[in-house]
Amino acid sequence: MSMDGFALGEDIDGASGGAEITSEQLEQYRERAKKTAAQAKRDKQQEQKKKKQENVLSHIIIQFLNTPKYSGFFILISKALAKNIPSDFLLALLSLIHKDSLAAVNAKEMQKIISIPQKSTFPKEVKIPMSHWTNLLASVASSEPHKVLETILDENWEIDKSLHQLMSLIIREFFVFKNFKTDFSNISIFSQVFLKNLSDQLQQQISNQEKIK
Protein backbone atom coordinates (compact mmCIF):
# COMPACT_ATOMS: atom_id res chain seq x y z
CA MET A 1 0.00 0.00 0.00
CA SER A 2 1.22 3.50 -0.71
CA MET A 3 0.18 7.04 0.00
CA ASP A 4 0.91 9.81 -2.56
CA GLY A 5 3.14 7.37 -4.39
CA PHE A 6 5.32 6.73 -1.36
CA ALA A 7 5.61 3.10 -0.25
CA LEU A 8 5.01 2.55 3.44
CA GLY A 9 7.98 0.22 3.51
CA GLU A 10 10.38 2.95 2.48
CA ASP A 11 12.36 5.09 4.90
CA ILE A 12 11.29 8.62 5.69
CA ASP A 13 13.87 10.73 7.52
CA GLY A 14 15.55 7.63 8.88
CA ALA A 15 12.41 5.65 9.76
CA SER A 16 13.09 1.93 9.53
CA GLY A 17 11.57 -0.12 6.69
CA GLY A 18 8.10 -1.40 7.47
CA ALA A 19 7.67 0.99 10.40
CA GLU A 20 4.38 2.83 10.65
CA ILE A 21 4.47 6.32 9.19
CA THR A 22 3.18 8.97 11.50
CA SER A 23 0.95 11.78 10.25
CA GLU A 24 3.76 14.23 11.09
CA GLN A 25 6.26 12.35 8.90
CA LEU A 26 3.74 12.15 6.08
CA GLU A 27 3.09 15.88 6.34
CA GLN A 28 6.85 16.54 6.20
CA TYR A 29 7.09 14.45 3.05
CA ARG A 30 4.20 16.30 1.42
CA GLU A 31 5.76 19.64 2.38
CA ARG A 32 9.08 18.61 0.82
CA ALA A 33 7.25 17.49 -2.32
CA LYS A 34 5.50 20.89 -2.56
CA LYS A 35 8.80 22.75 -2.14
CA THR A 36 10.48 20.58 -4.77
CA ALA A 37 7.65 21.21 -7.23
CA ALA A 38 7.71 24.95 -6.48
CA GLN A 39 11.48 25.10 -7.00
CA ALA A 40 11.19 23.19 -10.26
CA LYS A 41 8.59 25.70 -11.44
CA ARG A 42 10.82 28.64 -10.49
CA ASP A 43 13.80 27.03 -12.25
CA LYS A 44 11.74 26.57 -15.40
CA GLN A 45 10.51 30.16 -15.30
CA GLN A 46 14.07 31.40 -14.77
CA GLU A 47 15.28 29.29 -17.68
CA GLN A 48 12.52 30.65 -19.92
CA LYS A 49 13.33 34.20 -18.79
CA LYS A 50 17.03 33.70 -19.52
CA LYS A 51 16.26 32.24 -22.95
CA LYS A 52 14.04 35.22 -23.73
CA GLN A 53 16.78 37.63 -22.66
CA GLU A 54 19.32 35.79 -24.81
CA ASN A 55 16.95 35.96 -27.78
CA VAL A 56 16.50 39.71 -27.28
CA LEU A 57 20.26 40.16 -26.96
CA SER A 58 20.94 38.08 -30.08
CA HIS A 59 18.38 40.05 -32.08
CA ILE A 60 19.79 43.40 -30.99
CA ILE A 61 23.41 42.40 -31.59
CA ILE A 62 22.58 41.09 -35.08
CA GLN A 63 20.71 44.32 -35.78
CA PHE A 64 23.62 46.34 -34.40
CA LEU A 65 26.29 44.52 -36.39
CA ASN A 66 24.23 44.60 -39.60
CA THR A 67 24.57 48.38 -39.52
CA PRO A 68 27.67 49.05 -41.66
CA LYS A 69 29.13 51.76 -39.43
CA TYR A 70 29.15 49.34 -36.47
CA SER A 71 30.74 46.39 -38.29
CA GLY A 72 34.10 47.15 -36.65
CA PHE A 73 32.62 46.21 -33.28
CA PHE A 74 32.19 42.55 -34.30
CA ILE A 75 35.43 41.14 -32.88
CA LEU A 76 35.19 43.01 -29.56
CA ILE A 77 31.55 42.05 -29.03
CA SER A 78 32.42 38.43 -29.88
CA LYS A 79 35.15 38.49 -27.22
CA ALA A 80 32.71 39.95 -24.69
CA LEU A 81 30.20 37.20 -25.42
CA ALA A 82 32.94 34.59 -25.14
CA LYS A 83 33.49 35.78 -21.56
CA ASN A 84 29.77 35.27 -20.85
CA ILE A 85 29.16 38.97 -20.31
CA PRO A 86 25.68 39.43 -18.79
CA SER A 87 23.28 40.42 -21.57
CA ASP A 88 21.95 43.43 -19.66
CA PHE A 89 25.44 44.84 -19.14
CA LEU A 90 26.33 44.47 -22.83
CA LEU A 91 23.05 46.11 -23.80
CA ALA A 92 23.78 48.92 -21.33
CA LEU A 93 27.17 49.43 -22.98
CA LEU A 94 25.63 49.62 -26.44
CA SER A 95 22.78 51.84 -25.23
CA LEU A 96 24.90 55.00 -25.56
CA ILE A 97 24.76 54.69 -29.35
CA HIS A 98 21.90 52.24 -29.97
CA LYS A 99 18.26 53.10 -29.18
CA ASP A 100 16.94 49.52 -29.14
CA SER A 101 19.59 48.51 -26.61
CA LEU A 102 18.63 51.44 -24.39
CA ALA A 103 14.93 50.55 -24.66
CA ALA A 104 15.66 46.92 -23.71
CA VAL A 105 17.59 47.97 -20.61
CA ASN A 106 15.08 50.64 -19.54
CA ALA A 107 12.30 48.06 -19.79
CA LYS A 108 13.89 46.20 -16.87
CA GLU A 109 13.40 49.18 -14.51
CA MET A 110 16.44 48.19 -12.47
CA GLN A 111 16.92 49.66 -9.03
CA LYS A 112 19.89 51.98 -8.74
CA ILE A 113 22.18 50.43 -6.12
CA ILE A 114 25.51 52.10 -6.75
CA SER A 115 26.80 55.05 -8.76
CA ILE A 116 30.33 55.79 -9.93
CA PRO A 117 31.55 59.40 -9.48
CA GLN A 118 33.32 60.21 -12.72
CA LYS A 119 35.35 63.34 -13.36
CA SER A 120 35.95 64.48 -16.92
CA THR A 121 36.92 67.54 -18.91
CA PHE A 122 34.23 66.88 -21.50
CA PRO A 123 31.81 69.74 -22.31
CA LYS A 124 28.30 69.83 -20.87
CA GLU A 125 26.55 68.63 -24.06
CA VAL A 126 28.32 65.26 -23.82
CA LYS A 127 29.08 65.19 -20.09
CA ILE A 128 25.41 64.99 -19.00
CA PRO A 129 24.38 62.07 -21.26
CA MET A 130 27.68 60.36 -20.41
CA SER A 131 26.85 60.69 -16.71
CA HIS A 132 23.41 59.12 -17.24
CA TRP A 133 25.04 56.30 -19.20
CA THR A 134 27.73 55.50 -16.63
CA ASN A 135 25.10 55.53 -13.86
CA LEU A 136 23.04 53.09 -15.94
CA LEU A 137 26.09 50.85 -16.34
CA ALA A 138 26.70 50.94 -12.59
CA SER A 139 23.08 50.09 -11.80
CA VAL A 140 23.01 47.17 -14.22
CA ALA A 141 26.36 45.90 -12.97
CA SER A 142 25.25 46.03 -9.34
CA SER A 143 22.33 43.71 -10.09
CA GLU A 144 24.81 40.96 -11.08
CA PRO A 145 28.05 41.95 -9.30
CA HIS A 146 29.83 38.59 -9.52
CA LYS A 147 29.14 38.03 -13.22
CA VAL A 148 29.95 41.59 -14.26
CA LEU A 149 33.14 41.62 -12.19
CA GLU A 150 34.31 38.49 -14.02
CA THR A 151 33.68 40.33 -17.29
CA ILE A 152 35.44 43.55 -16.30
CA LEU A 153 38.58 41.79 -15.06
CA ASP A 154 40.88 39.36 -16.82
CA GLU A 155 42.65 36.31 -15.37
CA ASN A 156 45.29 38.60 -13.84
CA TRP A 157 42.65 40.64 -12.03
CA GLU A 158 43.33 43.59 -14.37
CA ILE A 159 40.81 45.52 -16.46
CA ASP A 160 39.95 43.37 -19.48
CA LYS A 161 41.57 44.98 -22.54
CA SER A 162 38.86 43.96 -24.99
CA LEU A 163 36.07 45.38 -22.85
CA HIS A 164 38.11 48.54 -22.26
CA GLN A 165 38.54 48.94 -26.01
CA LEU A 166 34.87 48.22 -26.70
CA MET A 167 33.76 50.87 -24.24
CA SER A 168 36.22 53.38 -25.71
CA LEU A 169 35.00 52.77 -29.27
CA ILE A 170 31.39 53.19 -28.15
CA ILE A 171 32.24 56.53 -26.55
CA ARG A 172 34.14 57.65 -29.67
CA GLU A 173 31.14 56.79 -31.83
CA PHE A 174 28.92 58.82 -29.50
CA PHE A 175 31.28 61.80 -29.73
CA VAL A 176 31.24 61.58 -33.53
CA PHE A 177 27.44 61.73 -33.38
CA LYS A 178 27.68 64.78 -31.10
CA ASN A 179 30.31 66.42 -33.32
CA PHE A 180 32.70 66.57 -30.39
CA LYS A 181 36.39 66.05 -31.12
CA THR A 182 38.96 64.86 -28.62
CA ASP A 183 42.05 62.67 -28.65
CA PHE A 184 41.26 58.97 -28.42
CA SER A 185 43.73 58.80 -25.52
CA ASN A 186 41.32 60.93 -23.45
CA ILE A 187 38.49 58.52 -24.19
CA SER A 188 40.67 55.54 -23.37
CA ILE A 189 41.69 57.02 -20.02
CA PHE A 190 38.05 57.78 -19.19
CA SER A 191 37.04 54.18 -19.92
CA GLN A 192 39.95 52.74 -17.96
CA VAL A 193 39.22 54.86 -14.88
CA PHE A 194 35.49 54.11 -14.99
CA LEU A 195 35.96 50.36 -15.30
CA LYS A 196 38.54 50.38 -12.51
CA ASN A 197 36.21 52.35 -10.21
CA LEU A 198 33.32 50.05 -11.15
CA SER A 199 35.34 46.94 -10.34
CA ASP A 200 36.29 48.42 -6.95
CA GLN A 201 32.65 49.23 -6.20
CA LEU A 202 31.49 45.75 -7.19
CA GLN A 203 34.16 44.10 -5.03
CA GLN A 204 33.00 46.24 -2.12
CA GLN A 205 29.38 45.35 -2.80
CA ILE A 206 30.19 41.64 -2.85
CA SER A 207 32.21 41.97 0.34
CA ASN A 208 29.32 43.73 2.08
CA GLN A 209 26.86 41.07 0.96
CA GLU A 210 29.11 38.32 2.34
CA LYS A 211 29.37 40.12 5.68
CA ILE A 212 25.58 40.32 5.91
CA LYS A 213 25.33 36.58 5.25
Give a verbal description of the structure:
- The protein is mainly alpha-helical and 213 residues long.
- The chain is 67% helix and 2% strand.
- It is built from eight helices and two strands; from the N terminus they run E-E-H-H-H-H-H-H-H-H.
- It has a two-stranded antiparallel ribbon with strand order 1-2.
- Strand 1 (2-3) and strand 2 (6-7) form a beta hairpin.
- The model is unreliable at 1-18 (pLDDT under 50).
Side-by-side strand order of the widest sheet = 1-2
- Uncertain spans: 1-18
Give the helices and strands as they follow along the chain: EEHHHHHHHH
Number of helices: 8
Radius of gyration: 24 Å
End-to-end separation in angstroms reads: 45 Å
Indicate the proportion of strand residues: under 5%
**How does the major sheet shape up?**
2 strands, antiparallel
Mean pLDDT across residues? 82
- The secondary structure category is mainly alpha
Into which percent range does the helicity of residues fall? 55-70%
Please give the oligomerization state of what you see.
single chain
User: What best-fitting shape do the alpha-carbon axes yield?
Assistant: elongated
The total beta strand count reads: 2
